């Protein structure tokens, strides 16, 4: 979905907004794609409709001082810089077609270690990140390969594609990305803060197709003055500027980031080290530990679209509340393998603990619990890496409007969950960074000037023994989901798929 929101820089309140759905396609098992042309058209539509809404509110469009871009980070696009035409669909971050590519890359690493590049990238070799998607495109799409050979190809994550289009496209568009998005490609060295020739060589990716790397808050082109990957934008929007502060965003997936300050912390417990933000060209970057969960809100959509047990996503709260418990049913939604802390692409979704008594309300409750259990696994790993237990968790994203989910989360974590009443903090973070850019200077990010945001608090309401029992059962279910799928598996549905699984 593309959302455009206009913020008041004094109050951080939304003036108006418009959103447009973007279609996802699933051409083969494990494949997830979007149309880059549809993405940019949705941006144009949002701009036009928002301008109309501002006019209806008697707000002059000229009062908009800056535009920020925030995006799904690892989703990969390659396009022709002469024609402006995408050379293939955008391969979405949770796409699994690269599982065999990943296995080949890990096999050539010393000791077949998936963390072989972690000292430079902060990341394990995984289907998640952009370099393996780009490698697949170079190996499998003739148009991409030919465009690279003839010097016409441009690579980028969605931010690069949008900024290039908004700043002129084939007529002089700016081909850039920011440090937060670059840090999710596996081609970027998080210590030197630049593309790394050795990493590019490892993935056999030509450096000339990569965008220029900029800070997260500076003028890139007319009006556009910030760029942040969605999770970094949410961290800024939650105003987690102090070392040790953390937020969790509940969207399609689930992403917890903890600010570790200006020094990167390399995880020993399956977390990612990522660039949190760099708010200006001459300002040091801040880093974060991140735990990524592939399936959160997507499990609700699956119950709606695939099973039909709810008609709208909002219904799950009511349905789950009628049960009040999963009645021993546990759901591991490993539809795209398991991300942190396991990094196990061979896992698949399972539902276990079923009895004749189990009904759809128990399944709905188990689905919500699954989101909370996955978050608990991340929080535990984060506490082990940083050795400072988190006392409270700031939350945002669409799913946080579900009060049952928020209470479940507090119960399962055993810490206070804090939800701002304005949950769209991702857009707010991009707006704040755009307004604070040098040359724009309409938003002050010093702590004394930050807007005060009203919040709801959720305190744990169950005893620790019950919480630990349920969490132990969940971990048992996770083990059952492991090693389910391999690239060697052969059955009819894989017959036309060169990279099954």
From TrEMBL:
Domain Carbohydrate kinase FGGY C-terminal positions: 247-437
Q: What EC number(s) has UniProt assigned to this enzyme?
A: 2.7.1.30
Pathway per the UniProt entry: Polyol metabolism; glycerol degradation via glycerol kinase pathway; sn-glycerol 3-phosphate from glycerol: step 1/1
Give the record's GO CC terms.
mitochondrion
Molecular function as annotated in GO = ATP binding; glycerol kinase activity
What superkingdom heads the lineage? Eukaryota
- Catalytic activity field: glycerol + ATP = sn-glycerol 3-phosphate + ADP + H(+)
Any Pfam family the entry gives: FGGY_N
Q: Where is the Carbohydrate kinase FGGY N-terminal domain?
A: 6-226
Keyword vocabulary terms for this entry: ATP-binding, Glycerol metabolism, Kinase, Nucleotide-binding, Transferase
The UniProt record lists the keyword Nucleotidyltransferase:
no
Q: Is ATP-binding included in the keywords of this UniProt record?
A: yes
User: Which ranges form a coiled coil?
Assistant: none
Question: Which Gene Ontology BP annotations are present?
Answer: glycerol catabolic process; glycerol-3-phosphate biosynthetic process; triglyceride metabolic process
Question: Family assignment?
Answer: Belongs to the FGGY kinase family.
Q: What is this protein called?
A: Probable glycerol kinase
Q: Which organism does this record belong to?
A: Takifugu rubripes (Japanese pufferfish)
């Amino acid at each position: 979905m593309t959302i455009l929101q206009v913020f008041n820089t004094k109050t951080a309140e939304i003036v108006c907004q418009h959103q447009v759905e973007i279609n996802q396609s699933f051409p083969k098992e494990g494949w997830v794609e979007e149309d880059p042309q549809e993405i940019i058209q949705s941006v144009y539509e949002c701009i036009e409709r928002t301008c109309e809404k501002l006019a209806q509110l008697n707000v002059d469009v000229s009062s908009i001082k800056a535009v920020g871009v925030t995006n799904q980070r690892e989703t990969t696009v390659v396009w022709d810089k002469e024609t402006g035409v995408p050379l293939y669909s955008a391969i979405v971050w949770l796409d699994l077609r690269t599982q065999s590519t990943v296995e080949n890359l890990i096999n050539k690493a010393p000791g077949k270690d998936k963390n072989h590049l972690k000292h430079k990238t902060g990341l394990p070799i995984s289907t998640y990140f952009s370099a393996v998607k780009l490698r697949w495109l170079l190996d499998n799409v003739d148009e991409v390969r030919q465009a690279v050979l003839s010097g016409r190809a441009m690579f980028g994550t969605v931010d690069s594609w949008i900024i290039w289009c908004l700043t002129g496209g084939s007529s002089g568009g700016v081909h850039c990305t920011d440090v937060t998005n670059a840090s999710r490609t596996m081609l970027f060295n998080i210590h030197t803060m630049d593309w790394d020739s050795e990493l590019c060589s490892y993935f056999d990716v030509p450096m000339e197709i990569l965008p220029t790397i900029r800070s997260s808050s500076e003028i890139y082109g007319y009006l556009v003055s910030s760029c942040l990957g969605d999770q970094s934008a949410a961290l800024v929007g939650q105003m987690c500027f102090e070392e040790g502060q953390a937020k969790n965003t509940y969207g399609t997936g689930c992403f917890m980031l903890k600010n570790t300050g200006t020094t990167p912390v390399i995880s020993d417990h399956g977390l990612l080290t990522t660039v949190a933000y760099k708010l200006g060209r001459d300002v040091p970057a801040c880093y974060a530990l991140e735990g990524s969960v592939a399936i959160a809100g997507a499990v609700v959509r699956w119950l709606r679209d695939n099973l039909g047990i709810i008609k709208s996503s909002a219904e799950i709260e009511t349905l789950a509340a009628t049960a009040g418990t999963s009645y021993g049913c546990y759901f591991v939604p490993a539809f795209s393998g398991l991300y942190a802390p396991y990094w196990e692409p061979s896992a698949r979704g399972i539902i276990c603990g079923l009895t004749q008594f189990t009904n759809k309300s128990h399944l709905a409750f188990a689905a919500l619990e699954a989101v909370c259990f996955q978050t608990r696994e991340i929080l535990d790993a984060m506490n082990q890496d940083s050795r400072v237990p988190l006392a409270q968790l700031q939350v945002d994203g669409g799913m946080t409007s579900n009060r049952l989910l928020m209470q479940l989360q507090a119960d399962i974590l055993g810490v206070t969950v804090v939800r701002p009443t304005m949950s769209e903090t991702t857009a707010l973070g991009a707006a704040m960074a755009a307004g604070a850019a040098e040359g724009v200077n309409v938003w002050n990010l010093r702590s004394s000037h930050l807007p005060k945001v009203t919040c709801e608090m959720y305190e744990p309401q169950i005893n620790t023994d019950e919480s630990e029992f349920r969490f132990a059962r969940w971990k048992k279910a996770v083990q059952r989901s492991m090693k389910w799928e391999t690239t060697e598996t052969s059955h009819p549905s894989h017959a036309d798929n060169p990279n099954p699984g």
